[in-house]
Structures are given as C-alpha cells and as structure tokens.
Amino acid sequence: MRASVKCAPVLVLASLLLLVSGGAVERRVPPFFDDILKQCKVLDQDSLDSCLHHMLNSIRSYLPDGIPEWNIPVLEPLAIRGISLNQGGGNTRIRATFKDLRVSGLSNYTITYVKSDPAKYKFTLGLQFPKLHITGVYDIFGNLLLIPIKGHGPFWADFLEVAADSYNWLIVEHPVGDAGPGRLHLNHTQTDFDIGKVQLRLDELFNNDEFLGETVNTFLNENAHDIIREVKPQFAQEIDKLVKSVFAEAIASLPVGLWEGLVRQKEKQRAVDAEAKGAASASKKRASAKGKQHQAAGADKQAKQR
C-alpha cells in the first residue's frame, strides 16, 4: 500500500510529461489534397468551381497554426512589417507609419463564391471576414486644423464586414527534366476589398493628454474610410501574398489534365455553338429569301391580272 502511494506522484509526473511531449509532437495534420480531390467529381466548369470551393474551405481550420508542410505561414496572428499613410493637405495633413502589425481573424473567412475560367487559366474567389483586429506601433506627425500632431505609441484597429474579391491567374510549370504534363502554378493574384466599418485608436497621443488625444482619435474615426482608401493598395499587396501562400499548394494539387480537359471541352462546346449559330443564321437567310420570292411572285400575279 505504501509502495503504491510512493509511486503515485511518479506516475502522475510521468503522465504529465507524456501528455506534454505528446502535445508537442502530435498536431492536427490536414488531409492531403489527393484525398480531398477524391471527394470531387469534376465534369464541367460548375463542378470545378464546387471542387475548388471544397478544397479551399477544407484547410481553413488548419490555418491558424500554419501548415509548414505546404509552406503556409501562421495566420493567427499574421505579421506585417508596416504600412505608411500620407493623408490630407493644407491645414489638415497627417503622415503616419504603422509598424510591427499583427492581424487576427484572417483564418475566419467564408468563401462566398468561386468562379473559374479554364480557357483563360483564371479563377476568381470571393472571401468575407467578419472582423480583422490589428495591433501595432504608430508614429504620427502633421496638423489637424491649428493643432500640431506628433506622437508615438501602440494602436489598434478593427475592420468589420470585410468583403474581398481575389483574381488569380495560373500557368503550367514544367520542372527541368520532367517529361510529364507539368503542374499548375498560381502565378499572379490581385485582390480588391471593401470594409463595412472601421474603428481605430491611437494611444499615448500628446503625452496622454486626454482631451487632445480624443480629438485626434475622433477625427481619425470620422475619416476612417478616407484613411483606408490611402493605405488600401498596401493592404491589398499583403492579402495577395496571403492568398498565394495559402492557396498555391491546393491549386498545384489539381491535375493539369483535368484543367486542360475542361479547356478542350469548352473549345468543343464553343465550336458546336458557333456551328449551331451559323446553321440558324443560314436557315434564317433562306427563309427570308424564300419569303421575298413569294412576295415577288404575288406581285407578278397581281400585275398580270390587271
């Protein structure tokens, strides 16, 4: 009995060590895209869109911690080195830099649509984010009417109801020495986005002067959409990098033959449609000519009767 009591702490410690070591080694590994593809049955463009939607949605829950096997970075939070702002003119002008940014909420996306164009090796992706929370450090100087502004400190911003459209172009890569069909490569991404509402706050303005600090923060929030318009291209570039890093491996896993098969199917359908359109046009011309012949014959008959 005493031996079991003495052993109990050792067993508890061993169990804790086992749990800790097991938690460090074992982690959720996303399914290989080959396994995901088995759930897709791609027959046409619509089913390709559905397959892309399924693939890109299936990895979402793994993104907060990143997927090192696929070179996908940690998304919660995503680190951005910095962006700059040069806003306004005259009596109101603000210049600012925002550094060491940490963006949270990027993995909590909803795919609103996927629209592919196999013939152009292109697909468009719609994404929605309920809330993106950003923290970092700011440096600001300028003028707000007659008030000179200068400050340095922490800041936060919330982007609410973010809707993004990501336009993506693919190419087929052929590795050196590989005689196979090649692999799809996400070559270029361009993103546009809109933000429903913006809230932000700069702390420690004017050496923590509450009145002046609130005045500047009120002005920034009232003009938040103008500020976002200024920094939007810089944020769009970061989203482009994110889309490429997150979705490149998923796209590369699609068989080139599948995509090219849809291209041939589209070209064949286009040829069939063109042939049908030509036949319909010829039939319409024949009917028109026949109608004119009937009209001419009727006119001749009437002339003879006179």
UniProtKB/TrEMBL annotation:
<protein>
    <recommendedName>
        <fullName>Protein takeout-like</fullName>
    </recommendedName>
</protein>
<feature type="region of interest" description="Disordered">
    <location>
        <begin position="270"/>
        <end position="306"/>
    </location>
</feature>
<feature type="signal peptide">
    <location>
        <begin position="1"/>
        <end position="22"/>
    </location>
</feature>
<comment type="similarity">
    <text>Belongs to the TO family.</text>
</comment>
<feature type="compositionally biased region" description="Basic residues">
    <location>
        <begin position="283"/>
        <end position="293"/>
    </location>
</feature>
<dbReference type="InterPro" id="IPR038606">
    <property type="entry name" value="To_sf"/>
</dbReference>
<keyword id="KW-0732">Signal</keyword>
<dbReference type="InterPro" id="IPR010562">
    <property type="entry name" value="Haemolymph_juvenile_hormone-bd"/>
</dbReference>
<dbReference type="Pfam" id="PF06585">
    <property type="entry name" value="JHBP"/>
</dbReference>
<keyword id="KW-0090">Biological rhythms</keyword>
<dbReference type="GO" id="GO:0007623">
    <property type="term" value="P:circadian rhythm"/>
</dbReference>
